[in-house]
């Protein structure tokens, strides 16, 4: 299992099935709204389908903060980046640090541009991606030139 250390208390860990932890994140209706613009929690089936897609169509990592899994971050094969942070760990700059690490990984792979789709109402994610250097180029599309 690959581990990428970002800071002493923050690292990325290669995806592995872990429904017991991850389903809790996607049961939070605010998180579901931020991520998928839906007002219903994930089922086990939806969660499994999502992680099957993420892990087979790009690089998917868990975010570990202080020895606790708190979210996930992925770069898809089309160079889109996606991130989820459990609500109780949001607004601590964890996401921003992980996005910056994913930019470094993309650069090492020779990727020239990353993109992120952020719903127009998701001010929190917009601020995080903009702080990492992404620029808005469409209503919900953000680009980072490497």
UniProtKB/TrEMBL annotation:
State the CDD domains in the record.
NAT_SF
Q: Which InterPro entries match?
A: Acyl_CoA_acyltransferase, GNAT_dom
List, in alphabetical order, the Gene Ontology terms for molecular function in this entry. acyltransferase activity, transferring groups other than amino-acyl groups
Q: Where is the N-acetyltransferase domain?
A: 19-146
Q: Which UniProt keywords apply?
A: Transferase
Record-linked Pfam families: Acetyltransf_1 (PF00583)
Cited SUPFAM superfamilies: Acyl-CoA N-acyltransferases (Nat)
* PANTHER family according to UniProt: GNAT-FAMILY ACETYLTRANSFERASE (PTHR43415:SF3), SPERMIDINE N(1)-ACETYLTRANSFERASE (PTHR43415)
Could you identify this protein by its name? Acetyltransferase, GNAT family
């Amino acid at each position: 299992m690959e581990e990428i250390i970002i800071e002493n208390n923050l690292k990325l860990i290669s995806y592995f099935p872990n429904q017991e932890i991850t389903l809790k994140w996607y049961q939070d209706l605010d998180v579901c709204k931020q991520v998928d613009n839906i007002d219903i929690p994930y089922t086990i089936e939806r969660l499994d389908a999502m992680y099957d897609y993420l892990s087979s169509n790009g690089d998917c990592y868990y975010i570990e903060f202080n020895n606790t899994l708190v979210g996930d971050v992925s770069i898809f094969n089309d160079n889109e980046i996606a991130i989820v942070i459990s609500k109780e760990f949001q607004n601590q700059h964890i996401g921003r640090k992980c996005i910056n690490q994913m930019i470094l990984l993309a650069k090492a792979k020779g990727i020239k541009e990353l993109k992120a789709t952020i719903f127009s109402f998701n001010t929190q994610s917009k601020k995080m991606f903009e702080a990492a250097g992404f620029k808005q180029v469409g209503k919900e599309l953000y680009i980072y030139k490497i």
